[in-house]
Structures are given as structure tokens and as C-alpha cells.
Amino acid sequence: MSIPFLVQQTMFFAIPLLVVALGGMYSEQSGVINIGLEGIMIFSTYMGILVLNMFVGTIPPQFLFILALLVAGISGVIFSSLHAYASVYQKANQVISGTALNLLAPAFFNFTMRNATGSNQLYFLNQYRIAKVPLLGDIPLIGELFFTNTYISTFIGLLILAISVFVFYKTRFGLRLRACGEHPQAADAAGINVYRMRTYGVLISGLLAGMGGLILTIPTTTAFGGSVTGYGFLALAVLIFGQWKPARIVFAAFFFGTMKTIAATYTSIPLLVGLGIPGYLFKSIPYLTTILVLAFTSKKSVAPKALGEPYDKGKR
Amino acid sequence: MLKNINQDALKTIFASLVSILLGLLMGLIILLITNPNSAFLGFQRALLGGFNRLPRSLGEMLYQATPILLTGLSVGFAFKTGLFNIGASGQFIVGGFAAIYIGVRWTFLPPSIAWVVGLLGAMIAGALWAGISGALKAYRNVNEVITSIMLNYIAVFLVNFLVVATVFNQTRNESLSPTNAFIPRGFFDSLFPRTGVHMGFVIAVIVAIMMWVILEKTTFGFELRAVGFNRNAARYAGVNEKRNIVLSMMIAGALSGLGGALLYLSATGVHIEVVDVIPLQGFNGIPVALLASSNPLGIIFSSLLLAHLNTGGFYMQTLFPTEIINIMVSVIIYFSAFAMIMKSLLDKFLKRKGGKSA
Amino acid sequence: MEHVIEMLNITKVFPGVIANDRVTLQVKPGEIHALLGENGAGKSTLMSVLFGLYQPEEGTIKIRGKEVKISNPNDANALGIGMVHQHFKLVENFTVLQNIILGIEETQYGVLQMKEARQRVVNLSNQYGLRINPDALIEDISVGMQQRVEILKMLYRNNDILIFDEPTAVLTPQEIEELMKIMKLLISEGKSIVFITHKLNEIKAVADRVSVLRQGKYIGTVDVSDTSKEQMSEMMVGRPISLTLDKDEANPTTPVLEVSHLSVAGHHATKDAVKDVSFTVRSGEILCVAGIEGNGQSELVYAITGLVKQKQGTIKLNGKDISVASIRERNTSGLSHIPEDRHKHGLVLEFDLAENLALQTYFDKSLQNHGFINFDARTKRANQLIDQYDIRAGRRAKTNARSMSGGNQQKAIIAREFERQPSCIVAVQPTRGLDVGAIEYIHKQLVKARDEGKAVLLISLELNEVLDVSDRIIVMYEGEVVGELNPKNTTQQELGLYMSGSKRDKEESHA
């Protein structure tokens, strides 16, 4: 198909990946591993879509979408507080706690859905597509690529990126957060409450992963089945490939977004169909390329030094 | 001296039991909120589990326990070496395919040994699949959680492709029956007729005991545990930690692959469906391993417990969706993460009562 | 006011140990007050209580005559108390400036205002002669500069009660002199200093009074000018202790370890950590590599023991080339290694004592049978070593390694490494963090090994240890061997000059 279509599709895949990976960045830069991003995405998307269905028709679409995004974000904060409590205050094994979230979210979705409706597909009306942004959509080339056939969530995602970068590098909060992930003893001695900062880090990851789940689902399907097809884990890969820094994360997110687009739309690209590779293997492209890229870039991987180590004030 | 060792094991068991109780309690609360009238009946069925309708339900339970016993061993064994094998599902399906292929296509083998070859083929397939993650981790420092997850998806796509290409039952969109390699039922046939349980369960238990022996009694197991606890010290002591990481993942993969074979070579009519779904048995191995603190002998019991609960879920599905069991399990896992804290709380509690501290 | 700090009857308890047992400390304003005690005596704990990192179980604290409660470092700061820790509390990948302002950042609506902060830091730096580069990353600067950053942190916060925890452990003699000068300058500006140490020389050099702690208890306070080093030492240890080691003349014979033109790559690809180093260690001698931490000693040892691959050069053990041999091969060919970090490399803390003692030999025919561990043999061997080396462990072979004291953990490592009858022992900072009794013991063991004909390569940062224990000294500076000295003919001052790169031997001698 056409280039503009491909670019638009890539945005639908890359932006949520970016937002969730940024969320993961906040958690891990504060020192807490969060592999529960998948579960948070699922739970929050569920909540967000429920809100959409509840108010559809009574509120103008774009405002409803924004409201749903807020609800999804807040749901993410609430859901991730389980992980924050376990990891920060109970000094639990962070991988186990994250796994519990991943198991709980789909189970919760399926149970409540089947109980209420008997089915496990949550349909929603997709009235949020913006066919063309007034004025901006008329700019030659750029207009067609970025301002037609788009969603408000894309722009919100980019706004989140800008805010994240600013907060991370230019604010006191960002500085203190990073200190907690690199050398919590130093932060503690400087009078910073490490427990509180780490909790914020996890809650922010919940906020962003929650929004990211909805940002992913709305443009790409019309029914939510309680799964985000491994996106939460892909976001972790983006985070690691991005070396926990916003600039590289953006690059990584768009790289994978492009791969995912190719895998999803290859049937419409004659060149790729002509290669004769069976469909099933095409679907593996995002996952294969992830592995390949990480194989070449992980040697010098430098994670935040205190990542994964529960902080214990009383330890000698 | 011996007493003190057992004290630590007892504390772990206690912490696990508390997690389980909390999970069950949570489930009951949710049932009560959803439908107070049927809640207690439903909860009772869940608790009775494999004993709901003897002997059939018990046979079902053992049948269900078999694959997750192995994926639990797979995850647990990797944990002991410091690795998180979240790729058990991928290894499971790859092994399952290998077994089915042998069962369907290698009809030149007499049925009495075809299933054994099937099991071996599955183990080799699983080992190779997991070996990819292991090698990437050992030699290129790639996080094994990410590679395992990626390989799960690739495994599903690959196996779907291979099933369609080699052992396809087009009318039902699934794999053909590997009738030549069905695992014999042995004495289970008379004990639990009309269920799926077969000698695979016995094999699984034996394998669990073998894994325990390897980890605790051999020099190889000693090396693996050293690498798991302190990779640097293991290296200093001359252990080839890279090689051991790969070997450990391969063993874990073989275990999951074997689990797949034991499932798909049962004469119960279970087939690989050609859909893009990652088999759950791999993920269910995680709670099994965590509840038993990765101890192979403990895993025998935790897999039975999980199967027990799942069977209970089956028998209560007329009243409630079975996912309530998954909710209970995830709550159990959540609280098991607090095991350390529970153990130290238990310590404080015992001290206050004037008992001797460990 | 009589006292600026009064800590009265402070008791601090950790699980299983009373770190401070009704300890009293009284510091006069404007004095340099030393806090003396062995490792584990409770000095750091006491100061951590003062700084708000720990809460005491009992006792009161008065600052400038007023009773106070210090619940966290912010409270301590508000009272004007600052602390330079032994292990620097600096974030490695932040800049100097970021580290100084962390915790008291200037902000406007949450956004960092760096310009004003930078100006203040530069002014303070000039005022006190503390040379730093505000934009350098901590991981790139020297240890001396890192310490100056720590001091600036205190000054930036207008602290006037300054606590220094073992500040000289990482400095050359010249840098130590500089630090002493800075301390005197700080006092003249109205500050009071508490200075934790176990080094008697330094107490004599700057302190006015010294309080002594021993095993958590307060022993007494004396005027430094009226007390001799021997008297201070006796207060510290509880018995008269000889400050020098008793040892015979060395009789080195055949070369055992021959290192030739060894170069090892460094962290940053541009600089080598070890540059063309050559030396020989003979049977029956203790060769000590002296130098400030971070000049290539660690990398040198890693290359010799096989933990890291060298860029070029050869290593021979008893004539056999082990330059590319695996670690296991080196260990079984007669090389023993007492590592720098006993928790990182030396022990698996989750294993018990028997398992740790068998860590290098578990595959030996005597301890296993076709891959199956022979537990009886292993336990028996472990108990033999426990008795022979006097390792204190509550449950003997079954003791969990993590629960053992540092000194006993180190003894276990030494037992294991010596028992293998190596021909060459590489010992890196074997007495770090240990009390005087353990230090004495380990030094005796090293000399004994030497007398039995082993070759000992000792890496040490403690100048006393270097001069006392070694038969021959080579000094490393920035990856090169810059000098070879005879301990009998040299002084700490001269060693200091070599260690800081101010002096080097001209000829390229093969040590």
C-alpha cells in the first residue's frame, strides 16, 4: 500500500510502545524492575474501554477519548500500587511481584467479562479516528503522513514524551529519582526519602503503561480480548535497547514500531509477498529483530546500578 | 544441627501456606461479591478439587498436573542457576510438536518404543530452543527474560507453520493424532478409567526426583547453584559459568519440551490448534516453581496443588467462570513474593514467645 | 559553651550484636577530635547515629548544649552536622555539581536552577582550596577529588560540625598532608571536626584529643599530646601489641611467577589499565605491589589469575606458560588467589562453610565419586581446616557463610587457598576491614607460607603492611611499574612519592 498508510500504521504501533517504555524507564531508573507492564496495560485498557462504552454518545468523541485516557492512566496507577507496595515496602522479589500482576489482569478481565456478559470480547465503537486535522492536514507531504488518519492519542503520546524528557533531565524530581536508582545510599544520606521516590517511579510507570494500553488498543482493533499481545514485554525490550534513556528509547520504539507494521501489513506490500516467505514467519519479524538487535547491543548494557535491589535503610 | 536445616525449610513451607490461604480467601471474597448465593458451594467445589467426583476427578487432576509439574521443574531449575525461564511455553510447544511429528510420521517405529522416541525428540527440541536464550545470555549478555518471551511468540508462529506443513488436519485446523506414539496408561487404566492420566505422571515424578538429586548431590549441581548464587565467585573458582548457563537453560528447555510431549502424546484427543495463542502450561509453571521455592521435590506437591485447584475450577464452572482460579493463583503468587518478610515475621513471633532463634 | 557535641550513653543494637554499648562522646568547639578503635569497634555506627542514619535504642544527644532528636540526615543537616563517609556516597554517573546539590537543590517550580548553585560551589572551592571540576563525572575523577567533592557537600550545606569517617584510607601520604592542612583551615574558620580512624600516625599529626572505643564500649578520652602511640594502641586493643612483625630474613630461590610485558585494557578503551609490566616472584619471597587504589593493581591480578584476558604479554608459573590457560587450569597448576573482594569473588555467601571450603576442590577425586559429592569426606576436610586455622563458626562446617564475621570469612578463604599447597599465592588486600588480631594472624600466615618456599604476591594499600610484611616492593602508578624498593631502606614518604607519580626509577629494570 501507500507510504502514508505505512507511516500512519507505524505511529499506531510505535507511540504506545514509546509511552509504555518511558513508563518503564521511570520505574527502573528509580531502581525497581517492573515486568508487570503487560498486566498494567491490560487492566487499564479494560477500565478505559468501559468508560468509553459508558459515555459514548453523551460526550463528544475526542473529549471522551481523553477522559478514557485519564481513567486508564489512573487505573494504571492503582493497579501498579500493588507492585510498588510489594517491591518498595515489603522488599519483595520484584520479578515475582510483576509476574503476579501479569497473571492477575487477564484473569480479572476474563472472570468479570464472562460473569457479566458470557463473552470475553469487549467491543467498542471506534469513533475516534481523525480523518484530517484542520489546517495541519493540508501541509504537503507532512500533512498526509502525520495529520491524516490519525488519533489524538498520538499527539498526547508525543506530549508525554516531551514532558518526560523535561522532567527527567531538568527537574529536581528527575535528579532525585535517578539518584535512587544509581546509588540509593547516597540519596538517603542527602536526605532523600528513597522509599517515596521509588514508589513515585513505579506509580508513574503505572500511569504511562495504563495510558499506553489504551493508546495501543483504540486505533488497532474494535474488540479488546484481554490481551495486548506481548506489548508490555516488547516495551521492556525497547527500554533495554534504549539503555534507559529517553532519546534512545524513541529510536528503539520507532524501530520496533516499523517492524510490527511490516509484520501486520505485509500482505499489502507486493515486494514482501513476492519474497515467498510463509505468513507465519512474517509475523515473527518484530520478535526476531528484537533478539537480533539485543544480541548486538547488550554487551555494553549499563542498567541503573541499584536496579532490582530492594533498598533497606537498616542494612549495615 | 539437622534440626536447624529443617527449621528453614519449615519456615518456607509456612510462608507458602500463608500465601495459599490468602489467595483462597481472596477468591472466596470475590465469589461472595459476584454471587453470594452460590459462593460457598462454588468455593467448596474449588477446594475439593480433584476429589469432587472420585475417582474420575482425581484422574483428571493427575492428568492436569503432569505437564505443569514439568514446566514447573523447568522454571525452577533455571531459577536455581539464577535464570528466569519465562520461555517455558515456547519450549513446551516446540517439544510438543516434535513429539507429534514423530508420532504421526515415524510410523516405522513400533508403538512400544515410538512414544519413548517421541519423548526424547521433544526433549531435544525443547533443549535446543531454550539453548538459544541461554547462549545469548551467556555470551552476549542479553536479558533472558526478553529473549524467552520473544522466543515464545516465534515458537507459536513456527510451530503453527510446521503443523500446517507436515501434520495438518485441515478440517479441524489442528494437528493430526499421533496414534502410533501414545503413551501407555499402565496401571492408571484400571485406577482411573475414562480419564487421560497415563504413565507420563510417573515419569514426571521420577524426573523431579532426578532433578533434585542432580542439584543437591552432584558436582554439576553444585556448580550450577554456585553460578546462580554468585556468578563472580563461581568464575573465580574456575567454573565455566558461560557453559553452565547454556547447559542449565538447555536442561530447563528439555524439561518443558518433555512436558509438551507428555501432554500431546496422551490418547485424550488433545491437539495443537493452529491459532496464535501461547500455551498456558508454560506460564503455569511459574507459580508452581515459586510456591515450592524451586525445590524439585516441593514442585511435585505444588503442581498437584495447582492441578487440584484447576480441577476444582472445572467442577464449579456451572456456577462461576473458571478464571476465578487464575485470580486466586495470581494472588497466591503475589503474596509468595513476600515470603522473605513472612519468614522474618515468623522469626520475630517465635522470639517473642521465648523460643530459640534459628 | 563547653561542648558542641555531646552523645551520652548511646546504645545501638543490630540483630545479634550490640554495636554501641552506652557510649559517651563529648567534643569541644573548634577542636579536632579523633575517634579511635579497631574495625568493628562501633565508631562508624556511633557517627551514623549522630548523622541521623540510625536511631539509638537508648541515650541522648545534645548539640551546642541543647538536647535534640536526629531522625534523619535532614535533621542532622539542619543542626549543621555533615559527614564524609568512608565509602563515598556519590552517584557515579552524575557530575560533581549534581552530587553537591543533591538533596538541597535550588529550584523554581521544581525546575533546577544550576547557575546560582555552580557559582556558590566555585566560590567555596576557591575559599577552601578544594580543587574540583564541577562538570566532571564522578566515575571519571580521582579518589582524592571525590573526597574533596564530599567535603564541598558539607560546606555547601553550611555544616560546621564535620565528621570524617576513615578519610585517609584511600590517599597517598602527600594527599594526606594536604587533607590535614584543609582540616586545620576548617578549624580556623570556626568548624569542629570529628575524625574516625584507626591510624595512630594521623591522630598524632592533627588531633587535639582522642576518644577510644573497643568492641562497642567507650574506653576513655585522652589528650593526644600527652599520650604515646603505644598507649593509644593498648587502649584500642586492650592488650599491649607489638606494632612490628617478627620475621626472619628471606631466602628467595627459583622463579615461580614470571610476568612479562603484560598489558591489560582499561575501562575506557583509550587507556590501558596495565602497561607493559614485568616482574618475577621467587619461591621463598614476598613481593608487594604498592600503589594507590585504581592504578592497575586490580587488573594486574585479574590478568594473572585469569579473570580477565590480557592484551599482550606472557605469564609463566613454574616455567609453564599459563598466559591463555583457563582459570581452573591455573588454579590446579599451583596458583592460589585471595581476592580483593571476599563477598564478590571469595565466597558464595549462601553456601555453608564446608561448601565454601570446597569451592576450589569439589571436583577432586577425594571429594566426589563419578560426579556425586562425597559429603562425608567434604565435611571431614572442612572440620580439619576449621581446627587448623581456628575459624570461628557457630555450627562448624554447616555454618552459613553470610553469618560469619569478616575476619573469620577471610580466615576461611585463606585456609582454602593455602590448603591446596600452591606454589604461588596472590593475596589482594588480605587484611582489609579486619581487626588487629586477625591482621596479626594473617601476616603470620603469609610469612609462614613464604618460609615454606611459596612465592607470595601481595597487593596492599596499607603502607604499614607494605613495609612490614614484604621482602621486596614494586610500586605501580597509572598502570606502570615505576620503582622497585627494599623495605628496609625506604620510608613511607619515599613510597608516597612513587605512588603519586612524583618519582620513578629511570632504567627499565626487570623487577
Describe this structure in words.
- The complex is a heterotrimer of chains A (316), B (358) and C (511).
- With 316 residues, chain A is mainly alpha-helical.
- Chain A has a single domain, classed as ABC transporter involved in vitamin B12 uptake, BtuC, CATH 1.10.3470.
- Chain A has 14 helices and 4 strands.
- A two-stranded antiparallel sheet of chain A has the order 1-4. A two-stranded antiparallel ribbon of chain A has the order 2-3.
- The radius of gyration of chain A is 20 Å and the shape is globular.
- Chain B has 358 residues and is an all-alpha fold.
- Chain B contains 15 helices and 2 strands.
- In chain B, helix 4 packs across helix 11 and helix 4 packs across helix 12.
- A two-stranded antiparallel sheet of chain B has the order 1-2.
- Helix content of chain C is 32%, strand content 26%.
- The mean pLDDT of chain C is 87.
- Chain C has 3 domains: 233 residues, Rossmann fold, CATH 3.40.50.300; 177 residues, 3-Layer(aba) Sandwich (Rossmann fold); 79 residues, no CATH class.
- By secondary structure, chain C is an alpha/beta fold.
- Chain C contains 17 helices and 24 strands.
- A 6-stranded mixed sheet of chain C has the order 6-9-10-3-11-12, with helices on both faces.
- Classes of the chains: A mainly alpha (316), B mainly alpha (358), C alpha/beta (511).
- Chains in contact: A-B, A-C, B-C.
- Chains A and B meet through helix 4, helix 10, helix 13 and helix 14 of A and helix 6, helix 12 and helix 14 of B.
